[in-house]
Specification:
Elements: E1 8-15, E2 17-21, E3 26-28, E4 33-34, E5 38-42, E6 49-57, E7 64-67, E8 70-72, H1 77-88, E9 93-95, E10 100-102, E11 111-118, H2 128-143, H3 150-158, E12 172-176, E13 187-192, E14 201-206, H4 216-226, H5 230-251, H6 254-274, H7 284-299, E15 305-309, E16 315-319, H8 322-335, E17 346-351
Parallel strand pairs: 7-11
Antiparallel strand pairs: 1-6, 2-5, 3-4, 5-12, 6-11, 7-8, 9-10, 12-13, 14-16, 14-17, 15-16
The protein binds ligand 2P0.
Length: about 350
């Protein structure tokens, strides 16, 4: 009948996040429980974000999802975990204007169509899964009227992709590794909102937009099994850095923030090299960008720019203010002109916020 032809939809947009104290290694692969806490900064949604529309209709006969216009399978265990966790918490939904009433038990039978777009290269080490899974969980939570707060939703997003839990908040975010075996306390908390330190400017040098060779999931599995250094990092180094980083963020202490961020990035890549077979995420251009920033920071009295690299060769640089960002860009454009033999594609400039 005509009454059966309704569609209800929700659209949400979620920016990606960049870790300044890195997550690398799991203690539980299914629940996605990490071996250390991590801290990240959520970018503003103008450049690196996912936009997701979720819809429900009695005319849909199975759950389907499209990523950048191409249908993808929802059969993976991680999607299924997220969908199951959200459906289990779904509430009654009523849209009086459209005359739609969905009872919470109806969500078990109703099917979803999900369309998601990234405005940046997928799986090139620019944390596409973080924004994607966070956006999926958030939009479904709105559609199904969940009562959970963002921290509780982050524990669901975590089961889709670890770093996704940190994109449920803007500003500076900590993923607390938690103590429980069931993962109930492994969730994100906001350390400071997006207005707290808004002088910072983030510049991303897209060294290569190609897909990375080693996925984070298999890379960190290999690290936990083979690296002799990872235990020292997770147990001795990171806990101290987490305390120091929280303090640097509260005080807006840029020199401490920068030193902690680049030392932690360098240790993460050292642990990758210590993995067997070794994992190389940075390339020659990445190393040259590090040298360029290090040389500049050493020439000044205090660090001007922080750098950090994730599971790919792209450089994320954080300048202390707009003036420094302009100088940084000038240096980068001079030393690494885009579309030259440096293998550097483009630059993305953004603020930290949501
Ligand atoms: C991070 N990365 O803290 C670290 C630093 C990459 C380097 O989180 O297996 O896609 O889905 O939990 O979250 C990338 O790993 O891995 C990541 P899964 P994820 O941002």
């Amino acid at each position: 009948s005509e009454l059966e032809k309704w569609v209800l939809m929700v659209t949400a947009r979620t920016p990606t996040n960049i870790a300044v104290i890195k997550y690398w290694g799991k203690r539980d692969e299914t629940l996605i429980l990490p071996i250390n806490d991590s801290i990240s900064v959520t970018l503003d949604p103008s450049h690196l974000c996912t936009t997701t529309t979720v819809s429900v209709s009695p005319t849909f006969d199975h759950d389907r999802m499209w990523l950048n216009g191409k249908e993808i399978s929802l059969q993976g265990g991680r999607f299924q975990s997220c969908l199951r966790e959200i459906r289990a918490r779904a509430q009654d939904v009523e849209d009086k204007k459209k005359g739609i009433k969905i009872k919470k038990e109806d969500w078990q039978k109703l099917h979803l169509h999900i369309a998601s777009y990234n405005n940046f290269p997928t799986a090139a080490g620019l944390a596409s899964s973080a924004a994607g899974l966070a956006c999926l969980v958030f939009s479904l939570a709105k559609l199904m009227n969940l009562k959970e707060d963002n921290s509780q939703l982050s524990a669901i997003a975590r089961q889709g992709s670890g770093s996704a839990c940190r994109s449920l908040y803007g500003g500076f975010v900590k993923w607390d590794m938690g103590k429980e075996d069931n993962g109930s306390d492994s969730l994100a908390v906001q350390l400071a909102d997006e207005k707290h330190w808004d002088e910072l400017v983030i510049i991303i040098a897209v060294v290569s937009a190609r897909q990375k060779e080693t996925s984070s999931t298999s890379g960190m599995r290999d690290t936990v099994v083979t690296s002799a250094l990872i235990e020292h990092r997770a147990k001795e180094v990171v806990p101290k850095r987490i305390v120091q980083m929280e303090d640097a963020i509260q005080k807006r202490d840029f020199p401490s923030f920068a030193r902690l961020a680049y030392r932690d990035s360098n240790q993460f890549h050292a642990v990758c090299l210590d993995t067997y077979p070794p994992i190389f995420y940075m390339n020659d251009t990445s190393h040259r960008i590090i040298s360029c920033v290090e040389k500049w920071n050493r020439a000044e009295e205090t660090p001007q720019v922080a750098y950090t690299f994730d599971a790919g060769p792209n450089a994320v640089m954080i300048a202390r203010d707009r003036k420094t960002a302009a100088l940084l860009l000038q240096r980068l454009l001079y030393n690494f002109p885009p579309q030259s033999d440096t293998d550097l594609d483009s630059y993305i400039i953004g603020d930290k916020s949501i």
